[in-house]
Design a protein that fits this description.
alpha+beta, 14-stranded mixed beta sheet, 3-stranded mixed beta sheet, 24 strands, about 15% helix
Amino acid sequence: MSAAGPCNYTFLRIKKPEDANKNPGVEVEARGKILGLDYYESVYSPMVTANMVQFDTGGSVVDSRTGLRGTLKDALPLEGMEEVSFNVATRYGDLEFLDTPMICTGTPLSIDEPQKQVINIPLVSKNAIDCAKKPLNNVFQEAKISDIVEKILDGYGLFINEIESTKNVDKVSGGHNSPLDVILKLCKKSIPSDGEDPGYFFYETKSGYNFRSIDGMIKEGIRRFEENLDDYADTHTYKYFGSLDAKLDQVYGNDFKILKSPLVKKDQNILDSLKHGQYNVRVCTMNTLTHEYTERVENLFTDTTLGDEQEIPVDAQDFCKSYTYVLNPGADEGGVSTEIMNNPSVYEPRANMRYGLLHSQLIDIQIPCNVQLEAGDVIKLWIENITQDEKLLSIYNQHRSGYYVILHLCHHFDPDNSYTSLTLARDTYGLYTSKE
C-alpha cells in the first residue's frame, strides 16, 4: 500500500471503566465506525493528544438504563475518562496505544441528524491524567537536574525514552504541582553536560518521555543521518519538486516527497533579533551579600547549528537588550551559606537566545504518512532550485535545503488517505558543514 493511502485499524476499543457506584465497565469495538483520527505530538507539550471522529447510527452499544441500543455518546455514555485503545497499521509502522490507552477528556461534541450522529472524541495521554490526579509533594535535595527529572518520572511509573544529562545541579520542590509542570520549569535553566548553551525541551512522544537539550537534539539527529542508524536517513529525508510526478496511490515513488508547497511561517528578522538580544546582551548583577555590582556585554553565539555557522551582524560591544539580576547568596541553602545555585545571569540570557535562534525559520509541510517520525527528530529537506539556467547543474536550493527539527507533528488518517503534517524549525541557512 502507498504511504498516503488509507490506513488499517487493526484494533480499536473504547472501554468505560467501573464507576463509583460499582456499575461494571463496558467495552465497545469501534473499528468500522471511525471517519478520522488526528494524532499530535509537540516538543512544547508533555502529553500527546488526539481527536477521533466517529459515525454512529444508534446500534453501537446497549444502554444499561433502557436496554435499547444507542450511540456511543448517549448510550455508553461518553462522559470523560473512558479508555481508547487502538493500533493503526501503516506502510512505515504502527501507531499503537494498546498497553497505555489514551483517555477521553470529556463529553464529545456532536452533530445530530435523523438516525445518525457524528461525534468528535478528544483524547489525551493516560500519563497526563495520572499525573494530574496526584500532585508532586517531594523535595529533591541538591542533585543534577537530569537525575531529578528521572526520579520524578520513575516515581510516577512513566516510560522514559531519553533523558539527556545536565551539568548543573538544583534543589527542587514539588509544591503540590503536577510533576509535568515541575519538570517544564527546569527546562530553561538546564545546561547539557557536554555543552554550554542552556535550553531543554520536555515532551512526550509515542516512544515515551524526553528531556533533551536543543544542542543535543541537533547533534544526535545529525549523527543518525551521518551513520544512517536503522536506516534513519532513508526515512527522514524528503524532497520537493513543485509537483508530484506520479499518483499518490502508487506503492512506490512518492512516499518521501513533500505533497504541497512548503509554507514559510517565519523567516529570519535581524531587527527583531537585535531587539530581543539574540546576538549580544548586557548582563548586570548586584550581590546583596557583598554589594558587588558587575556589568558585562556577552556574546551569545553558538557552535551547534543545523546549517552554516552563525554570522555576527554586530560589533563585539554592541547591544540592544539588557538583563538585570539581584543575587541572594544562600537563598537556596539552609543555615548560613554564600552559595548561588543556578545563577540566572548565567543561564537565562543564553537560554532565551537558544530558544529564539532555533525558531528563526519556521515552515509547515505535508507528506505521506510516516509514523516513524517523532517530535524532536531531525529531518532533511531537499528543495528544488529556481533558476533560468540549466537546473541539472544544481538541482537543489543550497540556501533552503538542509536539516530541520520537528517542532510539531500531526498524523492524519481518514477512509481515503493518510498524511503527516509537520512544523519544522531551523536556526541558520545553508547545508550543514561539520563545526569540528
